[in-house]
Design goal:
single chain, 374 residues, alpha/beta, Rossmann fold, nine-stranded mixed β-sheet, five-stranded mixed β-sheet, 11 helices, 14 strands, disordered C terminus
């Protein structure tokens, strides 16, 4: 029955794909104008509707670059409750800028984090308020054609490569597969850490990167759990602790699998991606928690969910819940981390070399590519 329904969706996918093809052709032919900025701009996005691990890849770039220059992230601010350009400040909440930008803001208070639906207008506003910004990271901007980024990084999930997917609603692609031609760099994300060189070669052949494109492979690494509530501490846990995973992310399966490798009983309570939690949701979580087997119980959530749950911090504190956040980072496979770092540094240095009158602090701070940090 499900396959039959998917077949019925195919004509709608064809229609949507045609619309996106026409739109892309208008940009490619210059009928629609894309703005390119003198400042280095690095876009991180994907062809699919989500679940490729974009956030930890943006965080990797933040960690890589912020020690050498003042940087900013610019996101659309999906599902936020504000409009227009917003620059995060000391009292900003996830409701104002969205969950992912709020995560960046909390984890990296020494960078500038902003949101704006119209990125071509948001960048001038950002530079008007923070003229010292040296590089802008464009979060989820692969389809935002009104800006031409200096470097376009496209992610594709190992378990659902764009080469095997279809346009929504029949599949999960936002546009046709040929959209990958716009990428300067392709990253196959969420790979098994033990991916073999033979599998790497097979994936390279399937993706068939163009001569100008770089191809890298990354896997997810989950870090040490830490308490969500300020000044709280986590109870002792063991393999016998029953886990309730509360999350609203596109693809929770890798996290579920990771938890099952460490705990005997793991239960998933899923919510929609970018879901803002309500008091009713807290009641649902309470019922699920009470129904779980075992004496030791622990609620686990993601960093992205935590910034949305924190909007109900008083109610959660009153319930005396134990909530653990599990962070996630990326790891480059096949010893390609330094090569990727060099690739990013080379672009930024080249961009400022080409830009006349670049401020002095924009140059000379980057490491020589042969000495790029690991």
């Amino acid at each position: 029955m499900l396959s039959y329904l998917k077949i019925l969706l195919y004509p709608f996918s064809m229609l949507y794909g045609l619309i996106m093809w026409i739109r892309n052709r208008l940009y490619d032919n210059g009928a629609l104008t894309a703005v390119e900025f003198e400042i280095p701009t690095i876009a991180v996005g994907n062809l699919s509707v989500g679940g490729t691990g974009k956030t930890p890849h943006v965080e990797y770039l933040i960690r890589l670059l912020k020690q050498f220059m003042p940087i900013a992230t610019l996101s659309r601010g999906y599902n936020r409750r504000t409009k227009g350009f917003v620059l995060a400040g000391p009292n900003t909440t996830a409701a104002e800028i969205g969950d992912e930008p709020m995560q960046f803001h909390q984890k990296f208070p020494d960078i500038s984090v902003c949101v704006g639906e119209e990125r071509m207008l948001a960048i001038p506003e950002l530079l008007g308020e923070r003229p010292y910004i040296a590089t802008v990271l464009l979060d989820d901007a692969f389809q935002h054609r009104s800006i031409k980024p200096g470097l376009n990084i496209m992610l594709t999930d190992y378990s659902r490569l764009f080469t095997r997917d279809h346009i929504v609603p029949f599949g999960r692609l936002r546009e046709g597969r040929n959209g990958y031609h716009r990428a300067d760099c392709i990253i196959v994300s969420k790979c098994p850490p033990t991916l073999s060189t033979a599998d790497q070669a097979a994936l390279r052949k399937e993706i068939a990167p163009l001569p100008h494109q770089q191809l890298f492979f990354t896997s997810l690494q989950y870090g040490q759990q830490y308490p969500m509530l300020p000044l709280a501490s986590l109870p002792p846990v063991s393999a016998d602790t029953t886990i309730l995973l509360v999350c609203g992310i596109a693809r929770p399966e890798p996290l579920v699998q990771h938890l099952k490798e460490n705990y005997r009983q793991v239960f998933l309570l899923p919510f929609a991606d970018h879901h803002y939690y309500t008091n009713g949701d807290l009641e649902k979580i309470q019922r699920e928690l009470e129904d779980l087997p075992g004496q030791q119980k622990l609620i686990v959530t993601t960093e992205k969910d935590a910034v949305r749950l924190s909007l109900l911090q008083e109610q959660i504190t009153a319930r005396n819940w134990q909530i653990a956040i599990i962070p996630v980072e990326i790891s480059f496979l096949f010893d390609e981390q330094v090569s990727f770092n060099n690739y990013i540094f080379d672009y930024i240095q080249r961009k400022y070399t080409e830009t006349e009158g670049a401020p002095a602090y924009h140059t000379g701070q980057l490491p020589d590519t042969k000495d790029a940090i690991e």
